[in-house]
Amino acid sequence: MALKVYVDRMSQPSRAVLIFCKINGIDFEEIRVDILTNKQFSPEYKAINPMRQVPAIVDGRFKLFESHAILIYLCCAFPGVASHWYPGDLFKRSKIHSVLDWHHSNLRRGTVGLVFNTIIGPLNGLPSNAQAAKEGEKLLVRSLAKLEDFWLKDGRFLTGSLQPSIADISLVCEIMQLELLSEKDRDRILSPYKKVVQWIEDTKKATAPHFDEVHGILFKAQKKFRERMATESVKNEVKSKM
Amino acid sequence: MALKVYVDRMSQPSRAVLIFCKINGIDFEEIRVDILTNKQFSPEYKAINPMRQVPAIVDGRFKLFESHAILIYLCCAFPGVASHWYPGDLFKRSKIHSVLDWHHSNLRRGTVGLVFNTIIGPLNGLPSNAQAAKEGEKLLVRSLAKLEDFWLKDGRFLTGSLQPSIADISLVCEIMQLELLSEKDRDRILSPYKKVVQWIEDTKKATAPHFDEVHGILFKAQKKFRERMATESVKNEVKSKM
């Protein structure tokens, strides 16, 4: 029985797991858990992941959630996975644990704080929260500076590596969430960090064509959001002239 | 040259690393980085950990930060560490990664949100933030319920284990931060979760006498905070009668 991977491609850790499985030729079944229609709260999904979040996997009788834990598991459980994704060398492996842990409270929290409170929340009928968005952006910008000056200072990929690891897929998928912002905002935030921009491109190339294919839904959403924002901006302009 | 461990015992992940080293008889030098006087921002410490947080370790030429990554490294680098702390079995190990990842965005974020915004921040001259404290408590209570109903449902320790792992030390040290609240608030939050309360006791026993010794500074701070809160409460009472 093939590995079952429960995901919503609009979720950045879900995309990381999918891209990883595809680039490594892991035989799996993708099962969509539509967050927009609250499918993660169904009793069936509660039995898979009681935390009611995506992604989660079921491999035979073994169930697992939390994307970093899943990526590490896949590296160890599937012998065909090349060692650069999760090196056996203790020092290299420890640095990957370190950047993945750092990610939780920094890059991820910043990106989610900004994108949720400016785009996702309001589009789902939640009140916008300018203060939370501002704090999110502050943490995001601080995290991008640390990526530029520390995590990417010694190599093309994180922790000074010449080849990508699970950390690169994980963190780049997170940053891709910024595509949901307006082009102007995305560029204002991201463009000062040249190494980061280059690293995103390098990670895309290293995981092509799966990276773009899995992000297809995000680009569709981006188009819709940007059109809606443009319409609202025109509406506001008309209103202000009345 | 012995392992160097950079810590402030008021920080919960610092205490987790110290207790782990002591219970496993690891030869190490404890180097205090006093957060209260901003020693983490010194140029010397920046060279150890550019993220300017504790804990961090230096083992020979190898530097590492992020407490979960450090605990995993110590389990692998020191052959004397018993396997229950970080099992070699892939399924058991993966569950430990999962609970440690979950910790970042749930129990830790909830506890820090509550304790920082009600106690630590205001005592350090920062404005108190009732909304952030309320959100922290909400996330903390939700996390305690998940510990009770899921993570502790199958055994004395996390993920159904009969012996403690690095996750137990890590998460219990986090919950110990609630000792800084008033006794009434601590009990109101914690006492509904019987399994959690028992698990804290079991983890203390499994790591005695180091657990209490390393937490000594926290209990001293608790005494001081509670005395100060009592004085301020009397002052407010007198004011309200004037």
UniProtKB/TrEMBL annotation, chains A, B:
This is glutathione transferase. The keyword Lipid metabolism does not apply. Belongs to the GST superfamily. Theta family. GO terms for biological process: toxin catabolic process. One of its GO terms (molecular function) is glutathione transferase activity. It comes from the Eukaryota. Keywords: Detoxification, Transferase. It is an enzyme of class 2 (transferase). It comes from Helianthus annuus. Residues 89-233 form the GST C-terminal domain. It catalyses: RX + glutathione = an S-substituted glutathione + a halide anion + H(+). SUPFAM superfamilies: GST C-terminal domain-like, Thioredoxin-like.
